[in-house]
Each structure stands twice: as C-alpha cells, then as structure tokens.
Amino acid sequence: MLILASASPRRLGLLQQAGIEPDVMMPADLDETPTRSEHPRSLAKRLSREKAEATSKRVAELNYANPYVLAADTVVCVGRDIMPKTELWEDAQACLRILSGRAHRVYTGVSLITPRGSLRQRLIETRVRFKRLSREDIDRYLRSGEWRGKAGGYAIQGRAGAFVVRLIGSYTNVVGLPLYETVNLLAGEGYDIDSRTGLQLEDDVNEGPKLTPVDEDATAPDRDREAVPLTS
Ligand SMILES: Cc1cn([C@H]2C[C@H](O)[C@@H](COP(=O)(O)OP(=O)(O)OP(=O)(O)O)O2)c(=O)[nH]c1=O
Q1: Which of 69, 101, 122, 180 could be 110's S-S partner, Cβ–Cβ 3.0 to 4.6 Å?
Q2: Domain tally, the chain
Q3: Is ipTM beyond 0.95?
Q4: Is there an atom of ligand 1 within 6 Å of 8 CB?
Q5: How far is the C-alpha of 102 from the C-alpha of 201, rounded, in Å?
C-alpha cells in the first residue's frame, strides 16, 4: 500500500504519469516556516521528512497495514534566500521581480517511510534561468492566478514555462516531485511498481491521458487537507 502524504494534485499527477497509483492521499498539516538561517536544502529535506513522519503517525493510529508513506517539499531560492510559497498577490509580484532575468535553484526533498519504518531521503536540485520579465509580463502572469500556493510564485507547468530560458536538471523536480529519483527510491525499497500498474499503463497509452480523481488542473489550488482514498 502507498500513501501520498500530500494535498498536491501535481504530485499525484506526476506519480500517475510514472504509472504509480497511490492508494490514499493523506496530507500532513505543518508549519513550514524556515528556522533562523536555515539553508534551503536543509529546509526541503526537513519538511519532507516532517510531512512523512506526521502522516506515518496518523496512519499508525488508523491501523493501516504497513504502508509506504511518501512525502515531498519544494523550495525555490536565490542564493540562500528562500522564496515564499505565495498566497498573496504582492508576494508573488515580489518573487517574480527577484527571479526576473536571473538564475535560481529549486530543491525538492523526497522522504519515504518504508513498511519496516525506515526513513529514506533524496534531495534533488534543479537550476532555472528566467528571461527578463517586463512589468506587462508580471502583471499578466499575476492575473492568471497560477502563482497561488506555488513555491517562488510561479508554476513552470503553466504559463511560466514561457519564462524559462534554461533549465539544468530535473524538470519534474520543479513541478514538485523528481520522477526519476522517486521511482528509483520506491523500487529500491521493494515497492512493486509493476504489480499495481501493468495493465493500467497499457490502457493509458492506448486511451490517452487519464483523468485524475483529485483534480484535472495541475496548476489549481490544492483541495482541503484531508485523507482521500483513491481506489474504491
Ligand atoms: C516552482 C514550482 C512549484 N510548484 C508547487 C509544487 C508544490 O505543490 C508547491 C510547493 O509547496 P510544497 O510545500 O512543497 O507542497 P504543497 O504544500 O503544495 O503540497 P503538500 O501537501 O505535498 O505539502 O509549489 C509548482 O507546481 N510548479 C513550480 O514550477
């Protein structure tokens, strides 16, 4: 059994893209404030661990039989300066002004708690350079609303994809879950990817993109933070 400790439709969509269907989404509700002078790398790693641990604790209380619990946290930074996950127009505007014409880094920490209770972690870095953004670019982007709830005030999988001049590293890492590393992590810990997805994958390839039961719009705000069973 796989539990995705997340409310993010993007993380679910990325896992599904790789042919992995989590059984339940059970987000952890955490204070995500960085500690004083915390490095962005440490923050992404710590928050992903705390999300996995918090959900694991709830899972134990609910008596689920030894699941895998997967969590991630994505942090955008310029140098050591951590960009906020933007909920306000002004914050998103400030982020875009900083990111304009510059290179920045995106870290995603991935934490997996195995059925035996061991914690396995990965930290993945992607470097992204944005074009110089005009006032008009920024205003138009802000009006799209796609920045809501996104680290650094943008979503590369939406309109902000057109701001990217160069990207070094994993694209899916920027969207919220580095697929190559996550699939390897799960497989390396004995999660049987093929047994859950063999037939489904074949159908999906023939029938085109699959609608997710959670949210079809990968840039949409996250749904309420509650456990969502994904299979009947
Ligand atoms: C930079 C960037 C971030 N993001 C998203 C990924 C994450 O959902 C979000 C960063 O916040 P996170 O705290 O990593 O995740 P979250 O709160 O959305 O979800 P969870 O329930 O798993 O904690 O920003 C994009 O979708 N596209 C991007 O280009």
Answers
A1: 122
A2: 1
A3: yes
A4: yes
A5: 39
